[in-house]
């Protein structure tokens, strides 16, 4: 059994999609990050970094209970455990390269672009420009790579596609002000439409919407989401 700790944000969305694609048994456990539930003693034992997603595999190697945190680590762990969505052995280097390109580039730069365009208490033109331009560069790298390709890696659907979907799904928020956010990236847009049409995506979205999370961005939420902004 996989216990899956989630909030309806891009990184947990990746894991939700994998679980639905793989068809493995799991229990979904909501963590309301705007209420600060990620800092509870119980959750910090699962992820000391106080972030979602995280999983606990109650039937790990040797029957041992295993915790895994960080979305890329979770995807790789589950893919290796189930033998699914790893692609061909010959493409292993490519798989790892794109998986970590998403983890170290697309994800964090998208997150910062969203923060400075939507959540920063004061407008900071330099920060908005830096992160928005850099995520546009990342989109360009992906667009070039996906020309003539149906998948990020090789000839099959892999955890690289699953991981990238989680963030490209948020392109309308990342690319604030663009009525068609992927218009300048047609190959990336075509790829996204292909992945987004999968039945497992619909099931993952249903899971992510299955809990009534806190929506108010009040002082409690701001302290929970941006603790470094508040002196202790």
Order of helices and strands: EHEHEEHHHHHHHH
The class by helix and strand makeup works out as alpha+beta
The largest pleated sheet is described as: 4 strands, mixed
Gross morphology is globular
**Biggest β-sheet: strands ordered side by side in the sheet:** 2-1-3-4
Organism: Thalassospira marina
Domain GST C-terminal: 88-217
Protein name: Glutathione S-transferase
InterPro entries: Glutathione-S-Trfase_C-like, Glutathione-S-Trfase_C_sf, Glutathione_S-Trfase, Glutathione_S-Trfase_N, Thioredoxin-like_sf
How would you sum up this structure in a few lines?
By secondary structure, the chain is α+β, with helices and mostly antiparallel strands. The protein contains 10 helices and 4 strands, in the order βαβαββαααααααα. It has 2 domains: 110 residues, Glutaredoxin; 109 residues, Glutathione S-transferase Yfyf (Class Pi), Chain A, domain 2, CATH 1.20.1050.
